[in-house]
């Protein structure tokens, strides 16, 4: 029996290409994935899913292996820096840095990419001791023609060394299968330092790795953070086993080979002359291993992760990592078959592919975030306190009735993803709401953009309250009175700036400022958000904050009503009317734009800022979030009648809508403003409800036209098939709901409005059974609704119906027509 030995530094090997520089890394390719070579027969709806959809343009999805709600997202990393590295992968790139185990789906920010594996064979490693970033040069080229992805499986052949890499996953374990060329050395690089979006401030704080004495196991941990930006406190443990023994190994710590089988490296906190923390160096541990050749050229690896402990990672491995690659893959397919249990009739092959892939994307997150033992890492109050590295972590024990979840991209997902889940996964919807209250108990505030137990403070407002209100109003009997009162307390404290002083003693001040900013103080104390505070400091995105806070306050009023607190209900209903402060109704001034007015930024004295340009946008510094006045004027989903009154009545409201859809396209310099229809930026969530607002006018058929256009022109069965950031299921949830023929404009009210059903029939799961949507006389050109009924009752008081109508055995039935003159026009019931 051979014994494992330490490989001499001079013989270290890595897959390095001569000339693999930024120029080659940024090469674009237009090769379509090979879909003709699945290794197993996919059945049911899984065969319609194409994980490459959304990996091109700005979709920012990843094609790798994941189970529904899985902690593991095992996927190739082809982009390490810049906006397109949010998911670690962009379809246009053919450079492979390796396969890492955690990714975000469709976001505009990243920072994961934990525990990077890269198989290699070459004996000519290029190692530059003087270059701290030498790993950037260690990359290979993929054979894009060999790339294949389906539910729970990804494979590719590496052009430089002819290795075939295959990936699959369970909830907590990533499975790798590498087939090396005949006679080639079987080697693997394990990089703990690789991290996505490192150019935005993320770095490794502490890395540790140990190779077991028997040569079959490697374990360790990585602490990482965004020193100056997003998620400030990430921790992951891993436990990896191999089916072949390691015969040679070199472990580098900070670029230097270490003696023995263990290495650890801790980053250094650098300070300026005044002693203020300014930067952290990188913690860096990388291992290069070579396996005994054995009887086959195949090496299998099973890699379990945990956010709790090394013992947790091992327990996860013991529970899920004992199966073979093919067994894990088959189990993953079966999980996706259950998750995609919609039955669609009609439509084209491409439309089915888009629909089921969209449904697939809505099932990736929120993810269950706990070990098999139920232990989880919750939200502490002091993540990386002021950059000093002082952790405050809350640990908890989940139950079968109440799991712990993570990756709540709430500003995006409250609008469509969570409403969709209240229909198709009602148990989960209730669990999400209770889980958010649990996170308030751990941290002192409801989550805003929660990221693996850490608060990022990303985006605006306090969107958790919308998800909680939606669940409570739809499922009031699933919450005790005490739970409703706790939810109300959490909502009030998260919308009250007075909590800032208390929390400042425990929270990282930078994060706290993003979660409880001056905008919350002004909403609470003054009834509007100005562009500057008392010290003339800029309050970024003030109009968007003001409008969203008004909506969130309306949602809190619904929670208060459910909790029986009439006083708070009335208080927050009054606060929800703050949107009126921003609207400038002056049809003469805005005659050139064809509208009666816009939502405008205000001075601290309550006056409109001048000069004013409705097309102007300034990313993350102006008064509008990822948009301009054209889009944000419409964000009053809780009081559309009130918005109509401010605009001058229903006719003015309809005229303003028309102008928004036909306005010129200037002023779209921010990348988030994509999918432009006039000045409706459909590629971003704040515009998602706008197409449905015609249902509050005398021309509801215009909603049907616009929805038909979006379904046809802004979603495609190709990598560039999502018109903007997918945002953790948000773009896809809009498609799923709209293709079925309805949408929830007010995401905290249990009322839906209809649009344009895409398919002849959709049978969707609801509590205790299935609900059916039928579209009679449906055709590509028959986009208009001639009549519509739900559970046998005609919609004759407006094109709306209640959530309670989604019952097992129920039916939403449309009769469609291609004749606009036959389209339904109903009075709007106020």
Automatic annotation (TrEMBL):
<dbReference type="GO" id="GO:0000224">
    <property type="term" value="F:peptide-N4-(N-acetyl-beta-glucosaminyl)asparagine amidase activity"/>
</dbReference>
<dbReference type="GO" id="GO:0005975">
    <property type="term" value="P:carbohydrate metabolic process"/>
</dbReference>
<dbReference type="Pfam" id="PF17678">
    <property type="entry name" value="Glyco_hydro_92N"/>
</dbReference>
<dbReference type="Pfam" id="PF07971">
    <property type="entry name" value="Glyco_hydro_92"/>
</dbReference>
<keyword id="KW-0378">Hydrolase</keyword>
<dbReference type="GO" id="GO:0030246">
    <property type="term" value="F:carbohydrate binding"/>
</dbReference>
<dbReference type="InterPro" id="IPR041371">
    <property type="entry name" value="GH92_N"/>
</dbReference>
<dbReference type="InterPro" id="IPR014718">
    <property type="entry name" value="GH-type_carb-bd"/>
</dbReference>
<protein>
    <submittedName>
        <fullName>Glycoside hydrolase family 92 protein</fullName>
    </submittedName>
</protein>
<dbReference type="InterPro" id="IPR012939">
    <property type="entry name" value="Glyco_hydro_92"/>
</dbReference>
<dbReference type="InterPro" id="IPR008928">
    <property type="entry name" value="6-hairpin_glycosidase_sf"/>
</dbReference>
<feature type="signal peptide">
    <location>
        <begin position="1"/>
        <end position="18"/>
    </location>
</feature>
<dbReference type="InterPro" id="IPR005887">
    <property type="entry name" value="GH92_a_mannosidase_put"/>
</dbReference>
<keyword id="KW-0732">Signal</keyword>
<feature type="domain" description="Glycosyl hydrolase family 92">
    <location>
        <begin position="312"/>
        <end position="817"/>
    </location>
</feature>
<dbReference type="GO" id="GO:0006516">
    <property type="term" value="P:glycoprotein catabolic process"/>
</dbReference>
<dbReference type="GO" id="GO:0005829">
    <property type="term" value="C:cytosol"/>
</dbReference>
<dbReference type="InterPro" id="IPR050883">
    <property type="entry name" value="PNGase"/>
</dbReference>
<feature type="domain" description="Glycosyl hydrolase family 92 N-terminal">
    <location>
        <begin position="48"/>
        <end position="306"/>
    </location>
</feature>
């Amino acid at each position: 029996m051979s014994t494992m030995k330490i490989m001499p530094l001079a013989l270290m090997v890595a897959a390095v290409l001569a000339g693999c520089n930024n120029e080659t890394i940024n090469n674009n390719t237009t090769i379509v994935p090979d879909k003709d070579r699945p290794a197993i027969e996919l059945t049911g709806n899984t065969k319609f899913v194409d994980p490459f959809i959304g990996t091109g343009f700005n979709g920012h999805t990843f094609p790798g292996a994941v189970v529904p709600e899985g902690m593991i997202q095992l996927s190739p990393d082809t982009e390490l820096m810049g906006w397109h590295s949010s998911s670690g992968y962009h379809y246009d790139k053919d450079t492979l840095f390796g396969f890492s185990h955690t990714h975000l789906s469709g976001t505009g920010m990243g920072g994961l990419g934990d525990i990077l594996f890269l198989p290699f064979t070459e004996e000519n490693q290029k190692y530059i001791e003087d270059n701290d970033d030498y790993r950037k040069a260690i990359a290979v080229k993929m054979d894009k023609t060999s790339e294949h992805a389906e539910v729970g499986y990804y494979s590719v052949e590496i052009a430089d060394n002819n290795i075939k890499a295959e990936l699959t996953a369970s909830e907590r374990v990533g499975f790798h299968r590498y087939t090396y060329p005949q006679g080639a050395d079987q080697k693997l690089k394990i990089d703990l330092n690789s991290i996505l979006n490192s150019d935005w401030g993320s770095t490794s704080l502490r890395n540790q790795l140990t190779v077991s004495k028997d040569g079959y196991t490697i374990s360790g941990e990585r602490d990482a953070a965004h020193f100056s930006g997003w998620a400030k406190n990430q921790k992951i443990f891993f436990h990896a086993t191999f089916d072949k023994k390691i015969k040679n190994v070199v472990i580098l710590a900070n670029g230097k080979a270490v003696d023995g089988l263990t290495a650890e490296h801790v980053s250094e906190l650098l300070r300026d002359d005044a002693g203020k923390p300014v930067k952290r160096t990188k913690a860096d541990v990388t291992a290069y291993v070579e396996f005994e050749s054995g009887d086959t050229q195949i090496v299998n690896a099973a890699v379990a992760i945990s956010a709790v402990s090394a013992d947790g990672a091992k327990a996860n491995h013991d529970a899920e990592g004992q199966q073979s690659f093919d067994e894990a893959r088959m189990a993953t397919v079966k999980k996706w078959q259950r998750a995609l249990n919609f039955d669609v009739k009609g439509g084209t092959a491409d439309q089915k592919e888009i629909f089921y892939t969209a449904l697939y994307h809505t099932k990736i997150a929120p993810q269950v975030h706990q070990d098999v033992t139920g232990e989880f890492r919750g939200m502490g109050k002091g993540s990386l306190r002021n950059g000093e590295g002082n952790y405050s972590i809350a640990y908890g024990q989940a139950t079968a009735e109440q799991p712990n979840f993570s990756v709540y991209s709430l500003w995006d997902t409250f609008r469509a993803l969570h409403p969709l889940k209240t229909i198709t996964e009602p148990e989960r919807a209730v669990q999400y709401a209770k889980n958010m209250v649990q996170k308030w108990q751990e941290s002192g505030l409801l989550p805003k953009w929660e990221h693996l137990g850490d608060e990022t403070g990303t985006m605006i407002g306090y969107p958790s309250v919308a998800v909680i209100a939606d669940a409570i109003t739809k499922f009031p009997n699933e919450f005790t009175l005490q739970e409703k009162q706790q939810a109300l307390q959490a909502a009030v404290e998260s919308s009250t700036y007075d909590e800032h002083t208390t929390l400042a003693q425990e929270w990282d001040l930078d994060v706290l400022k993003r979660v409880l900013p001056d905008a919350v103080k002004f909403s609470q104390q003054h009834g509007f958000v100005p562009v500057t505070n008392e010290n003339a400091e800029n309050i970024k995105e003030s109009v968007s904050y003001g409008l969203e806070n008004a909506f969130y306050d309306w949602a809190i009023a619904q929670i208060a009503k459910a909790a029986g607190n009439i006083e708070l209900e009335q208080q927050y209903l009054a606060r929800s009317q703050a949107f009126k402060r921003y609207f400038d109704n002056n049809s003469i001034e805005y005659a050139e734009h064809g509208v009666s007015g816009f939502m405008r930024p205000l001075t601290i004295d309550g006056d409109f800022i001048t000069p004013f340009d409705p097309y102007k946008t300034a990313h993350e510094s102006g008064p509008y979030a990822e948009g301009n006045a054209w889009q944000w004027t419409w964000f009053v989903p809780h009081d559309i009648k009130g918005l109509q009154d401010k605009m001058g009545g229903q006719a003015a409201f309809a005229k303003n809508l028309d102008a928004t859809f036909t306005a010129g396209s200037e002023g779209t310099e921010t990348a988030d403003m994509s999918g432009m229809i006039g000045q409706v930026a459909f590629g971003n969530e704040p515009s998602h409800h706008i197409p449905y607002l015609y249902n509050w006018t005398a021309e509801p058929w215009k909603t049907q036209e616009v929805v038909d256009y979006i379904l046809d022109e802004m979603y495609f069965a190709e990598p560039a098939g999502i018109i903007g950031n997918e945002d953790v299921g948000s773009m896809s949830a809009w498609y799923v709901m709209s293709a079925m023929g309805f949408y929830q404009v007010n995401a905290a009210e249990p009322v839906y409005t209809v649009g344009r059903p895409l398919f002849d029939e959709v049978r969707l799961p609801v509590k205790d059974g299935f609900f059916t949507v039928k579209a009679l006389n449906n055709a590509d050109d028959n986009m208009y609704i001639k009549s519509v009924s739900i559970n046998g009752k005609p919609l004759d008081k407006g094109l709306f119906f209640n959530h309670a109508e989604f019952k097992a055995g129920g039916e939403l039935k449309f009769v469609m027509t291609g004749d606009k003159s036959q389209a339904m026009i109903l009075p709007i019931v106020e």
